[in-house]
Protein 1
Amino acid sequence: MKIAYILGRLLSALPTLLILTFFVFISLHLVPGDVVDIMLGTQNYLSEEQVQDLYKEYGLDQPLIVQYVNWLKKIITFDLGTSLRTGDSVSRIISEKFPVTFELALISLIFSLIIGIPFGMISAVKRNKLPDYTFRVLGLIGLSAPAFWIGAIFIVIISSLFPDYLLFGYVPFSQDPLSNIQVMLIPAITLGLMIAAQVMRMSRNSMLDVLSQDYVKVAKAKGLKNKKVIFKHALRNALVPVVTTAGIQFGYLIGGTILIEKMFALPGMGRHLLQAVTQRDYPVVQGIVTFIGVMIVILNILVDILYSFIDPRIELK
Amino acid sequence: MELKKLWKKFARSPLNIISLIIFIFIILVSLFPGLFATYDPMEMDVEYFMEGPAASHIFGTDQFGRDIYSRIVYGIQKSMMIASLSIVFAAFFGTLFGVISGYFGGIVDMIIMRVIDAMFAFPTLILALFIIALFGASVSNLILAIGVVYIPIFARTIRGSAITLKELLYVKAAKSLGKTSFSIIMKEIIPNLSSVLIVSFTTNFSTAILSEASLGFLGLGVPPPEPTLGGMVGEGSPFLLSAPWVTLFPGMIIAIIVLSINIIGDGLRDTLDPKISK
């Protein structure tokens, strides 16, 4: 049963992955001019023959579908091409920059769960009372304020109150764990606030849902204390959708890291992507965008499979 | 009658009313920026260079001596225009794909939904950035980029509602009367999607404002020297510690706009959703 579900879920992702990669592939052919033109830039001293050789080298002389299949074969082995500017392999760039982005997103996610779940639960339990209103308004502000503005406020406040705080200047974790956490903390909180607000709203709704279920009413009717009902019966069930959706949010956090990495000058994948976009370094852009898309599809499958273990009612439709 | 009742329900919360007033004011600013601005947004004043808020320049001046308040006024116009056109674009194509997918089902549904799934795999900002990377930054490309990004969101919501609607008795009756699919979609399905559309339009409008501001902040929005809210934050951030007002005021305005739309969106959902009404 379970194996059939897992296999089915994996299979259902295949067309998505194919369409996704095809979309990224084909879109680069929509760019005015092609990779060779961009590479040559203003250097037009190459002979027609040399230009043709370049086309051959990049496989651009072949039909589109052949080019796509060849490209697919390459990305399966994690060969994402090389940067037009530096000649570095794109997969090496990703393996170097992604850990920074991953750490940032992970700390943000943990922060958002720590803040979002308790606030949401309290809001639900105290529905339509002062704490509920306060948290809901805070949540709305969290959802509305742009992350880069919150980041700017943090920078202004912290640098004037604690001039010694290490706000900028990334240090790898392996080199100095304490400084690393210090540098990452504020950017991670900035990034996590919006997700915290979402987690809070979700926890509140989920808890309200559970609280209106029959088994909770029965537990209350049996004379169990309110606290016990909430912590023993309701909380656990209410958390299931929250935690799994948080898994999905993780992929979207990766998108937000671009803003934060720029704001706090962190040497992550997002900032590198932005740089590649402004330099029109298409292989790097293509490689990183493909990497992010595929990663999120896989992440979603993992979350679904995890969910099916937590909630046995789930089956493939 | 019906409308009056809905308005009463919406107006029950003072927060909704305040947000609506703010939002109407923002629309007025974006329609008639000339009435609100006190300076030409491009005019550089060498005597007032990165000056803090003062009586002559209430939000201060930026690194080129331009009046921040007036740039914000024109920035609001740009942001509102780009966000609203993108969402109209997204709502149109999203509704089209969603209705076709939900109403016809089968293989058409499968193909459309797989494409939508693939688009969903990208965080909105990454997808918009990718489109800008391909076509370059300009007002029309921004509208296209943000619009494309929001199509899947509309398509998925509308598809769900279309599936529910097509099972309803009166739609089945229309079918058995021999009406064409086109006329059923136009006369029975689309009019009944209006409340779903209004709510998704509002909630996605607020995130579209954020998307436009984020792209502007990254330097991929409307090219300078045109003022945009996100762009002002991005251009001001190198001087954040010496001249925080250059960054903080435009950012605050983005937050206020998005907050007011979010509150209105929540209010509309509560008003239009029959499940929540007491």
Protein 2
Amino acid sequence: MFDDKQIVVLGERDGIAGPAIAACVKSAGGKVAFASTECFV
Amino acid sequence: MDLNSQETIKRLADEHGAEQLLVILGAPDPESAEIAAETVILGDPTYAGALAEAQLGLSVYHALEDEFRSQIDDEVWEDQIGVMADVLEAEEIAVAVKGMREQKPEA
């Protein structure tokens, strides 16, 4: 799934935060090109 | 979706090619997951950001979908995401994102 891909992580404060998803991606060898944690209020 | 995120995604798609990008969402409910997926597949439905009318057709999954989870070591997944999997509507979110993937324009 992650092979040679640039991974874009769009986390959300009320859901799953960007750093948590990014940590998973990195642990599986994926390359995180951009990670954010958005906040809708 | 945040306007800065839209600009960054558009730039990355221009630099690397849309087929090289994979988007992973952490949205808290089916509605917001669907809008985020729509934005990176069909374009920004609010016409506010850089992805307005940009049909990038990106590959997109939610972090709670089996396709993503199966790639991650169980211990890491449990540490980072496990608690939220019990709180969020994983099945409904997965259906919403999958539904948008099926609307991806043909390359």
Protein 3
Amino acid sequence: MSILVDKNTRLVVQGITGGEGSFHAKQMMEYGTNVVAGVVPGKGGQKFEDKVPVFDAVAEAVRKEGANVSVVFVPPAFAADAIMEAADAGIALVVCITEGIPVMDMLNVANYLKTRSTRLIGPNCPGIISPGKCKIGIMPGFIHKEGNVGVISRSGTLTYEAVKQLSDLGVGQSTCIGIGGDPIIGTTFTDALKLFKDDPETKGVVLIGEIGGTAEQEAAAYIKENFDRPVVAFVAGRTAPPGRRMGHAGAIISGSEGTAQEKIEILQNAGVHVAESPAVIGATMKKLLK
Amino acid sequence: MKIHEYQAKEILKKFGVAVPRGSLATTAAEAKKIAAELGGTVVVKAQIHAGGRGKGGGVKLAKSPEEAEKIAKAMLGMKLVTHQTGPQGKEVHQVLVEEGLAIERELYLGIVLDRAKKQLVFMASTEGGVEIEKVAAETPEKILKEYIDPAVGFQPFQARKLAFGLGLKGDQVKNALKFFAALYRAYVQSDCSLAEINPLVVTKDGQVLALDAKINFDDNALFRHPDFVPLRDVNEEEPLEVEASKYNLNYIKLDGEVGCMVNGAGLAMATMDMIKLAGSAPANFLDVGGGANPETVENGFKILLSDKNVKGVLINIFGGIVRCDRVAKGVIEAAGKMKINVPVVVRLEGTNAEEAAQLLEESGMAFEVGRTFEEAARKIVAAIR
């Protein structure tokens, strides 16, 4: 099985005519994702690749094509608005790929979503994939393999690295979620763990964290009390100096908080198997599944 | 983005936050003139981005314009060493000359983001002049917190809770409420990522002013504030990082000996960790982004090789949408144009990784190919030993 996205997903691509949006819309369609609509205000009436209808508004894509999931490729200055428009149109899941959205905008988005049933993944993330069923985002589809391990990650290419290790060892994935590298994100490690808990087919979870914030610590607390399937974690940034932002806006050690060592210890205390090296994430999971 | 104290105070003043009177001086003569205009005792403050200036000798009182001139003369050009600058210190190019105040109390005020609650939090403490991390660790009950609902913003009742919680009275309360509201407006409207007033001072005549001010901006929001861009002071940054930013490369200099070039921030950090595990230390963090085309690889090489500590280079690219054979061609092309006299290990994984490895091996260049993450790290560490 899988979580959040599968063969029933009807995807609308916000920003489908832009450079990134059009390239990845095609990639997703090739993978087999059911792309039912695109939205670009002012370009309603066009057809993308001669088959996908483009609308002026998300609400139209919902009404006319039954879209239930949206992916946002809109530039940073307009992305917060795009997320809220999707939520207002009743979209159940919004996946925001856009990098560089101001924190102040995301504060408003987080507040807006509080009173709605829409789930947000990202922003600044690679997206979500249920291998063999549905790919939403920018990850390379071919490295994935259908199976029973859930993957949750704050990173992009490091996730691909871990997924490839799993697939090469014959360990397939139920669903892989890139939750994003920003300070404010929609779905956290803990949120994703709760979803995997409700999926009986997911036999174990790989969690890829990094320095900064307290999301890994919160996940550890949840795992300790509520999650009894094997969890493997890796925390990137043990060699990162405090006070410097390591690429992701969220990856910064402030004061003594958010160091890799602190996160690793708390995860280990919660019974999580922490991979010492990023090269053995897959192997550590495989051993536990035997 | 970080800015200087004097710049932060100029911005805050525009929003109605009370700050001491003062001006910036880049020469001792200017400092003397400003001190004379202000009259009475003045404070001369070195303008560098690091904190802990007072203890390092970067903040001094002057009782006359002549004394201010003398202090400024000594301060300008000196290497100020604080716990945040590292032992090499930071050169002082400008000083802020401000009026001296009759201080009754020193307090702390700050606005930061609480990621887990997804809200801004206004913090105040009676422990002014102390590092707030220290207060949080030792006496957390002394930090008052008010979470801000973004829909309505910071409310007057919240400001009152903080003001009364700090033990302010009479006119002090009135002035504090005005100060707090103005600081919140400045934070939101300037897209700050941090605002810290430490210390916030209460004077003997009941004024509430920002004796020091630290503001950071959200880099992602700079497109809304073109007027902030010139506030950047490249003197405060690592020269190689300034150079890298011209090429849109995300580079941070560290003090190890293995230069690394990686696509993606998480993988870049993991690569640094891997180098450490293999027994060496990374010379930098460098994320060349998802694309990794010949141009970015060439620029990456330029930056890495200008760091004299670099004894070897590890390239670790995960080709997802980008094909590895294209990245390999880029690496070969860039290396062909440049003189590379340190060992280079390349590891390309993902789409067309085999073709890429073959291209590198047949290029005739002195690249070593690492087939796995672990092998690549081991090879580069062995090569520099």
